[in-house]
Amino acid sequence: MNAAKYILSQIVIFGISFLLLWCTEVPEELPPTPCLKQVDDSFKSRYPEAVHTVWSKGRDTEGKSYYIADFEYDTTVAQAWFDCNGNWMLSEYACRFSQLEAPVREAFLRSPYASQNISKSRLLERKGMKQLYVLCLPEETQHVNLYYTPEGDFVRSLASRQEHEEEACVEYPKEIPALMKERVSSLFEKAEIIDFWLGPFSQNIGVMDEGKFRTVALDHQSQWICTFWPLSAEEVPQAVEDNFYASLNRLGYPVRQLRNVCMMQDRKSLYYLFYFEGEKGDEQLAILFESGELYGIIR
Question: How many domains does the chain have?
Answer without folding.
Answer: 3
